[in-house]
Structures are given as structure tokens and as C-alpha cells.
Amino acid sequence: MATSTWPSKWAIIYNPNSGRKLAKQMVMEELVPSLQKIPKLNDNYEIYETKYAGNGTEIACKKSKEGYGLIAVGGDGTILEIILGQRQAGNEKLPMGIIAGGSLNYFAICGSLPTPNELPGRIMDQKSCFYPTMEITFDNKDLKMESFEAIYVGRSAYIVSEIDRLRKDMPPPVALPKIVSELVENPSKASFQGIVEMELDDGTKLNLDGTNDYFWDIAIICRNPFTGAQGDDMWVSISKVSTMPSKERTLLRYKPPNEGYTGGWRCTDSQHCIKNIKIISKKNDKESNLVAISGEKHLFQNEIMIMKKDHMINIIGFNEKPKNVKKEYHRNDIPASENALKELKRFYGDDVNPNDYGAILSEGSSSL
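Below the sequence we write its predicted C-alpha cells.
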């Protein structure tokens, strides 16, 4: 039976092969010494290393049934395994610690999740925040998957795939600008030909046609594209090849502090708060339809349907208010759109100054 009781003992589950392969080091050299400094925690934790795909779910389910709180250390795939294990145990409302050990760690940085050294203190504070998941149905219910972070079609899906392919020879932060630069020179590598059908949050239906002017990027997230804030809403940001930003603008986005972390979706044409979205392929080569789900690549043949689920993750130390992108990343020549102002005011208050935030978007192209 689901409960929101705060656990007194914790199971740390890490994947040694996630991302940059630093998970074990973070656990042993940072998290454990910090736990040992707190009397109520220093004898109340166990450590488990995953051995194979799905092992995180098995461990998480067993330890959750035994009353342990869970601390997930790894990339998106590892974290999702542990979320599913906790749910199988019937304890999805229990608070969970998340330590990012993936390649780029957008979710952790955008949500200002605690570092390994900070997490024990946040556990003692007993502060957490609920966050939704998304369900993806492949090709008319043949296959279903779940995501807690992001779902990408087009450019971002291609980037995820290439980072994985190059991982052995090139660290993700080094590979990222190389991949992006190549894509800007040859956008057809990653563009998506098809139709997008969506139901907006107010019930309005909206269809976008990308059969001739292909989609450059489709990103579905539970992160506000104007403020970067994590929340209960599901959003889609969409751009097309004809309005894709210049190489300089695109590469600027991926330089530190990385606009992608904090909602700087200024390289997209439109943003919509949605209930559900269907992405339908019109390509002749059906096997090339790439979708990235929580940091892992998958292929679909005809279509995918994405819906926000009622399942919620109770994340320790989760910060609803993201860190802001530095002001020099803001483009003063792009006026704040009505939607951007609405979201910023809802989040920061009516006296908000749009120029203080890097996530201001226009409704049209934002090319340099």
C-alpha cells in the first residue's frame, strides 16, 4: 500500500556503467562519507550495484517492500528502473533520492537536485516534491514505455543516439558540440517527416504538417520551456528545418551554462502545453524513425502516442524553481511573447522583468 511515511533506512542503488562511469565513485567517495557524518543515517543504509538491465527494478522492488527508502545513482535508464521497482512494491509515494550519474544530466541540473554531499542533509530536512511521468505507446499499442525526463524526435533524438555511439571514444560533453555542428551543416540527418497531432491543455486540437517542411526537433517534457521549472504540466517544443537557428546560435546554446538545462528553448518555433500528442511518420524508410526516451534510443515504424500519467515520483530535495541562465544568453532583439510573459508572471510574480531571464521566447524563429 502506498504511503508517504519518511523512511528511516535507505538502499543506495547505483549503475557503475551509467554515463561517464562515475556512479561508484560518487557513492563511495562523496555520498557515503556524508551519510556517516549524520548519526541517524550512518548505520541505516545499504549499497547495491546493478549487474544487468532490469536489475535496478528487482533490487528496488525488494528493498522498497522491506521498508527502505531508495537512492538512485546513475543515468536516466537506471533511475527509471528504480522508479518502476518502487512502484511495483506499491510504494510510489515514498520519497526517493536521485543522484545524477548520466551523460548530460539535464533533469538533475534543471531541477537543482542535491549533489551526493548535499543529499543526506536534504533527507534530514524531509522535504520532497512530486513529479509526473509520461507514457509512450508505439505503433497502435504494440509496445508501451514510460519516461520521467524527456522524449525527443528529430535533432535531439539523433544527438542521444550519436552520444551513445561515440561514448567509448569521446566523453559526452566533448561529443555534444561536434554532433550539433555536424547537424547544423546537414539537418537532413536528423529531420523528421510527418504529422504532429496534439490536444492542448484547454482541450483544443492542433495539427502540424511536416511532410514537406520537415520537423527539425520535437521535444516533449514536463519542464516549462519558458522558465525551466519542473511541474505537473506536459509541454512540447517544436521547430522546423526552414526556421532552424544558425550554427552560431545553436552552438551558443550548448556552451556553459547550457541553456538546455534551464528552459532556454529559444531555438524553437512554438511551445504548447498539452494533454497528449501523436507523432505520425510519413517517411518511406520506416525503420529510421528514431525516438529518444529518458536518454535511450528506440525506433518506431508508424506512430507514437504520448500521454501524461497520473503516476508521480516523490523526489527528495527537488527544486521547483530552476537556476536562471546568465543574462548574456538573452537576446534583446527578440520580444517576449504573450505566452512567455504569462508563464513568467505565473511563476515569478506580476512584477517580473523579462530581461532577467534567459528563457524568453518569441512565437517565431529565433535564428541569429
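The chain has a mean pLDDT of 79.
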